[in-house]
Amino acid sequence: MALGRSISYSQAAGSAVAALLAVIAVGLVLRKPLTQVPENTLKFTVACALLAFGTFWSLGGATR
To answer: Is 53 a domain residue?
Structure first.
């Protein structure tokens, strides 16, 4: 039960497919503008995001 609510497997699968399609659509829209960004800048931004999320979760950010 995620978030205290139960849903059927078909609803969960439908949500997963919808999320996948949304990510693909955003990727297609942002593909051209992202080619304008220097590769090292993109890598640095992704590394900062991974470090921030990793630090948050490793320090117990999910606890109440």
So the answer is: yes
Residue 64 lies in a domain: no
What is the per-residue pLDDT across 4-60, written as a single tens digit (0 to 9) for each? 567 788 888 999 999 999 999 999 999 999 899 999 999 999 999 999 998 888 887
Q: Identify whether 21 is part of a domain.
A: yes
Q: How many domains does the chain contain in total?
A: 1
Whole-angstrom distance, CA of residue 21 vs CA of residue 24? 5
With beta carbons less than 8 A apart as the criterion, state whether 42 and 34 touch: yes
Range of the domain at 23: 9-58
**Residue 55, Cα to own-chain centre: how many angstroms?**
16
Cβ contacts of 34 within 8 Å, gap of 6 or more: 42
Paired residues of 5 in beta bridges = 2
